[in-house]
Structure prediction request, 444 residues.
Amino acid sequence: MSKNEKVSKSVIRRLPRYYRFLGELLREGITKISSRELAERMSVTASQIRQDLNCFGGFGQQGYGYNVSELREEIGAILGVNAKHAAVLIGAGNLGRALAVHLDYAKYGCRLCGIFDSNEKLTGASLGGIRVSPLSDLESFCAKAKPVIAILCIPKDSAPDICEKLISLGVKAFWNFSHYDMPQKNLPGVTVENVHLGDSLMALCYGITNSETEKTESPDQM
Amino acid sequence: MSKNEKVSKSVIRRLPRYYRFLGELLREGITKISSRELAERMSVTASQIRQDLNCFGGFGQQGYGYNVSELREEIGAILGVNAKHAAVLIGAGNLGRALAVHLDYAKYGCRLCGIFDSNEKLTGASLGGIRVSPLSDLESFCAKAKPVIAILCIPKDSAPDICEKLISLGVKAFWNFSHYDMPQKNLPGVTVENVHLGDSLMALCYGITNSETEKTESPDQM
DNA sequence: TAGATTGTTAATCGATTAACAATC
DNA sequence: TAGATTGTTAATCGATTAACAATC
Prediction:
């Protein structure tokens, strides 16, 4: 499927966005699009789109453009949106509960199959059809269900130990919402997405403080 | 505070991480650190740290290193973590409710001052001490409270209109969790953080499918 | 002073954009 | 065929890393 060279992280991170925009086009009933038109919609350059896609293959047709439906399928296949990867959610606090019921996992190639929490007050409840189990059941559960993804909504301090345990239980990918900065290196074959909501919010604050109200050089009349 | 050249987005996005690690050091009672030691902890290069910091000023001391507490304060000031920017949350669904109660806004320079939802079933409830108000009250509320940040946890279709309205009401920054791709361009003075959780999850799935199990060239004995 | 480590300049690397030949 | 648009190579740009003189 892919050409043999390693695809850069920047390219990968743009694929889901292409996938979304192509879905939108499809819903609008648009069947064909040129890189130029798509670029305009997405506020990127046509060059970038063509370069990105050509990391994986020639999906277009010269003189014509790209078939929207076909291209979307191709990108979906590259991302693996039909994979139904089994995922466990660790931590059923506010954020964990929201992630359990708010997201359409099937749409993103996943399938939530277990929810765990160490707090007895939270176990037993049902979230989106899945019972919250005590953390002590995690090991036996993983032996059976063999989840490849763990979604971490746990306190910073407990994160390192739980990560280690999950890796030993066969988890290959971490969607990490904890304040623990999970290292990507030294873990061959393990994929990590650290989602630091606080960092994102601080970056937003920076934008406010250092707002682009910077006047151009012209001193204006006065 | 800052040198006159525009600081690149890559640098800005690293600042919150520095801020977090420095906080951690402080908690550990470490008062001084060299760029080399910090780099090792953070799995980055010492060069990058020094380059990043020198976008804003010389915070270190040659032959010594950086004072942890002082450097943390400086970065905090750059980010504006003491700013207490007023923020409104739009959409009190699962994700919205989690964001209302799960985050320590004060820690990140913000202050949640209003929650709105168009669904009557959700209005009236209290989340983290704030009543959920009907969206029809948004305009009068903004006139009084003058929020500069909007946190969007709303459906894709309603997002464009609400964004436009919020901008007209003086909102300067959007923390956007909706599936709408809010444009950053064409909106001078407006800062946007699009947090596409689905994109993040798909990138994770890509990592699983295309796992780094790629053997090195050596064919191994067999 | 000698040793250490910054601040900063220069070199390298990678990613983006532009250009254009290939081709539908 | 002529026109359009891709796939791909080359040029540019920006970000990262290395090197080292300044200096504490």
